[in-house]
User: What shape does this take?
Amino acid sequence: MSTLLLIVIYIAFIGLGIPDSLLGSAWPAIYTELNLPVSYANFITMIISGGTITSSLFSANLIHRFGTASITAISTTVTAFALFGFSCSNNMLWLCLFAIPLGLGAGAIDTALNNYVALYYKVTHMNFLHCFYGIGVSLSPFLMSMVLSHDTWRTGYRLMFWFQSGIALLTIVSLPIWKKVKHSFENNEEENNKLIPFFTLIKKSKVRIACLVFIGSCGLEYTCGIWGSTFLVKVKEMSTDTAALMITFFYVGMALGRFFSGIFAVRFTSRQLITIGQTITLTAIILLLLPLPPVLCGFALFLIGFGNGPVFPSMIHQTPQNFGKNISQSVMGIQMAASYIGILLSPALFGLIAQHINTVLFPYYLLSLYIIMVTGNLLLKKK
Assistant: This one.
């Protein structure tokens, strides 16, 4: 029964990934049809991230009150509703309105399932969990690129709505399974779990340093996902459907990176996997800085996904060990909030750079985020 529950959790994480890469792959088509400035993607991203930050910070209390199972089912259903809303939007106002439930749903399920797997499953399962997230974020831009070759972005969002609805239905049907699964230490952990106030935890230097890694890694990931397609269209002169397909390679790389890190987790520690991933990411960013043909830029994006992919799940799985199992749920909420701060600010800042300076600065911007991530990781090792 425990294995069946793990499969449900994996599929739910596909649902978490599906909305995250849609906007980046569809945005060139969206802003063209609606006659919007290219930088307006910032506003939508900021609203989504604001919702995820809010739900992440309140997640510990919500999980404590309603349980991980209920939060998972409700959140997945809410994100499905938001995707349908996006497909019906005819102007910027409606896109922004439906971005609110998309963000709120994502933050809650992200924190709930990450903490659950970190507590009750092995590091291999954590990496595989985020591999399935990689499947979700790879699936949606791939299908969007196929749709854009003969139809509109609205059809792509409607298709993703049906995928997400199916996953939401699964999480609802599986609610009884959660009640039947009893981990040998689950009851004691829940009894000893402490809800620590945000301002108490954030005073700890180790918590703040860990947040730096999440801000840098997630900022890099989402800047690639949202602006990589625009970079390829405006700088490398690709067609919108080909650029969307190239972004798929980025997410495929992320999924594969997490898959292989799950396999090698039995031989390497989480910190070693993070170091290896960061080395690959730096190599890929250097490739983007070189005057390479568009196809090779796609390969560089693949490598960025492959290298940066294992960083997030490896950091997540270290949370109970770094801070203690009894407060991991509260710390997890702060780490998720830090992740979404990176997601909120990083793509938004580059959007301003793209609008007022030049999109060609994309690789240099990724390098700055990489430096933030590595700095945090090096400082964390000293604690």
Notes: The domain at 2-382 is CATH 1.20.1250.20 (Growth Hormone; Chain: A;). DSSP finds 19 helices and no strands in the chain. The first helix runs from residue 2 to 20.
